[in-house]
Amino acid sequence: MEEAWVTSVLDQCRAANVLFFFKQWGGVQKKWNGRTLRGRTYDDMPARSTMSVPDADERRNLKARFDLMSLSFARGPIPLRARKAVDAEEGAAVS
User: Fold this and answer.
1) Mean pLDDT computed over 33-38
2) CA 76/CA 88 separation, integer angstroms
3) Global confidence as pTM
């Protein structure tokens, strides 16, 4: 793993105010390569979620709602119109 790539990710996280956790350097012998970056370790972790897991009835209701929403995607892709037809329509709208 290239250090420039890791430091780029670190810099992007800082710019976006996102926590950064650096596990270890890649390679064949990961343990020996260590996990320090720029002379320190990065162990930032987000706060643990306190949301409870929905009970079985609520999960079934959520699944049913999702299944209904997903039906609109099951019909297949939206057909693309031929480029000439689109150009002709745009030309007619401009005229």
Assistant:
1) 86
2) 26
3) 0.47
User: Residue 14 has which token pair?
Assistant: 């800082």
Q: What is the 3-state secondary structure (H, E, C) of the chain?
A: CCHHHHHHHHHHHHHCCCCCECCCCCCCCHHHHCCCECCECCECCCCCCCCCCCCHHHHHHHHHHHHHHHHHHHCCCCCCCCHHHHHHHHHHHHC
Let me know the angle formed at the C-alpha of 54 by 49 and 56, rounded to the nearest 5 degrees: 150
Under 8 Å between Cβ of 31 and 1:
no
- Give the Cα separation of 42 and 10 in Å (integer): 9
Q: How confident is the model at residue 87 (pLDDT cuts 50, 70, 90)?
A: low
